[in-house]
């Protein structure tokens, strides 16, 4: 899978995020759009997985801790073939397995339940610890966010992982500088996350979360570390790809309306107006 | 839930306006929030008193701890989050830092109940009352509409001691009047049939609207007289009013948007098992988690609407 193919998948995932959020009429836009490149890099390049065997015991585990960004997870799982893309339009609807916040359902690749911030991080630590105890080869990827690091539970999990030298735990943080009440540095300053993790004895890298080369290289570097857990601080643009959503914390937790949906899809299909004709 | 000409209102708006109003009289009141300032309506207080607003970030345990320290020094902290996070995330801090020390901390659990809708089970607090009711010293209030929430907020600021206020996300029918009296610990009789009353419905929160409609329908269709008690304070329960009004009734019904375990139904059962053994019918969530869906769909699925209350009473009378 080359970079061009990855970007095509990421674009498709972003379009689906917009469509499913519009169809749901509620949900989170900014975080999911910002994390699309990372999810695609994981599922289409980096993970050892097989969508036809979602319970395969040797599979790499993906634990989503900032559960509110699940639209990007669902859209990526559908893109990868875990279930039909048509299901995406049932997001947040009664009877759907695509719950507003993830509900563990291995059949469709949804590895854990989350939503209340902080919990998924510790779940991931448990999954990685089990792998260590059982001498398994799988990696545990935990997706987290800057706002989530306000929670004390996250830091308890960080200390524990270093103590246990969970080298097969790779945490990827959506460092987009927003949370609900505003910019992270106004709500609860989180800079410099790199120094913080280093002080807790983790292996840390900071990357551009929209650069596939950097994402892939960072994960490969993380895998080469054998004595510590790894953290990748991914700088992302919240709302990435949709001009009027980018870097605006007001888009943390709302879906596009009809007009905004159209405009978002147009933005995504024309690279925010840089190319003239929509490629679809 | 909504009927076209039924007046609706937001309980959380009542909270925000009530807090602003009472804070004008008491400058010791401070507001704390965990990154949910607008949706809990704490923003109304924040705009009026920016210097008395404290943004704690997404850290509910810390918020309650800080509030207890502020209360030790005479402040009156109001702490707002969603009910699944406060008390959900910080029960131990509420138990020891707040209740054990009997400090004047007020906790607002917003977006409580199934009616949160599409966010799903993780965000639908159905156990908050159960988890708090066992804690000594703590008062628990579940107001039923905008006006009652506003009054409850003002009263809890005037009352000295720890209080939990539980409010929903959605607009709900206005069923009390602006001038109705609200006293913490004093239940209100909100309906009494003119014919002989055979049934008493005890409820708290917006589900009282459904109970009212069901009660009126029973009166019409089966000539069954009903008394409806708004037991907005779940702890301490207004035992006197409840005991007085179950006298001579055939059936006691308890309605709540909460698990049947540990909430108002349990509180009433505990009282009546000691003082007046009676048949008590629970209307509530039956030991299951919620799920994503529209609020009105969930209310039907989990059997909390007026029609379902009506039918359940009919088949039990
Ligand atoms: C324990 C807990 N408290 C509060 C919330 C409500 N909440 C949901 S998302 C969020 C902001 C989190 O920040 P971040 O993940 O950085 O948001 P994003 O970048 O996706 O906008 C908050 C406070 C929650 N989900 N869990
Ligand atoms: Mg963020």
From TrEMBL, chain A:
Gene3D superfamilies per record: 3.40.50.970
Record's keyword annotation contains Ion transport: no
UniProt key word Protein biosynthesis: no
Cofactor: thiamine diphosphate
Name of a matching Pfam family: Transketolase_N
CDD domains per the UniProt record, alphabetical: TPP_TK (cd02012)
Keywords, in A-Z order: Thiamine pyrophosphate
Residues covered by the Transketolase N-terminal domain: 10-265
Protein family (similarity comment): Belongs to the transketolase family.
Protein's name according to its UniProt entry: Transketolase
Gene source species: Candidatus Berkelbacteria bacterium CG_4_10_14_0_2_um_filter_35_9_33_12
Lineage: Bacteria, Candidatus Berkelbacteria
